[in-house]
Amino acid sequence: MARKELDAMGPPSLAETKVIAVFVLVCALWSTVSLHGMATVTVALLGVTLLLLSGALAWTDIIHEHTAWDTFLWFGGIVRMGEAINDFGLTTAFANSASAAFGGWSWPALMVAIVLVYFYAHYLLASNTTHIVSMFLPFSTLLVTAGAPAELVVFSLAFYANLSACLTHFGTTPGPILFSTGYVSVGRWWKVGLLISFVHLAVWGSVGLIWWKFLGLW
User: Fold this and answer.
1) Among positive and negative, which fits the CA dihedral 118, 155, 79, 172?
2) Is 35 exposed, middle or buried (0-12, 13-18, 19+ CB in 10 A)?
3) Beta-carbon neighbour count of residue 129 at 10 Å?
4) Fewer CB within 10 Å, N or C, the chain?
């Protein structure tokens, strides 16, 4: 059946062949970045340029893709802003300051406070990677030093960094793509995201802890 469908499609056109060639080139450059040092964005722009120069893609095709440009502006700008904030050390400084403020607490109370700060700090971030890289180490170190079980700390901070992506429309990669469809307003997304965050914290802070206790993580 699949063979018949392929035969019905016929051989690839010249434009399709150009697209395939550029796709293979871009993937090859992305996978060998350690050899040539080209940035991911540079490779992507190179691919678009080659498609335009070869005639496989017209400029009108690009400007008519409003959803794609909307996603590009939301995600590209906000993610880069988050990366810049992390590069300047602001998120790390925030994490260290928050850690210092809770010094001397017993580990159960400290765990609750740190998880809440860690979770809702994602309002300021547009990347799970930035969130974990900048805040995981100082918070986990503080909790383990206070006596919290290391496995419980690691699992909690790892999961909550991803669960907090529900808070905003730019909280993780699929967010801007879904938001660009225009079905949900910013206010509604943030309101529903906040409500979902309460559900996440309630479930993972009760059933999750019981299950992890059963597994022997604490």
Assistant:
1) negative
2) exposed
3) 14
4) N
Which amino acid would we find at residue 78? I
Which two tokens mark 153? Answer: 């700390």
Report the candidate in 102, 122, 98 with the shortest Cα–Cα distance to residue 110.
102
Dihedral (CA of 74, 77, 83, 88) sign: negative
What tens digit of pLDDT does each residue of 59-114 get?
777 777 666 666 666 555 566 665 666 667 666 676 667 666 776 778 888 889 88
Nearest-angstrom CA–CA distance, 67 and 73:
10
Q: What is the DSSP letter of 123?
A: G
With H, G, I as helix, E, B as strand and everything else as coil, classify residue 171. Answer: coil
CA pair distance 113, 143, nearest whole angstrom: 10
Task: State the sign of the Cα–Cα–Cα–Cα dihedral 45, 41, 30, 178.
Answer: negative
As a whole number of angstroms, the distance between CA 140 and CA 126 comes to: 21
Instruction: Find all residues with CB under 8 Å of 210, minimum gap 6, and list them.
Output: none
- CA dist., res. 61 & res. 217, Å (int): 53
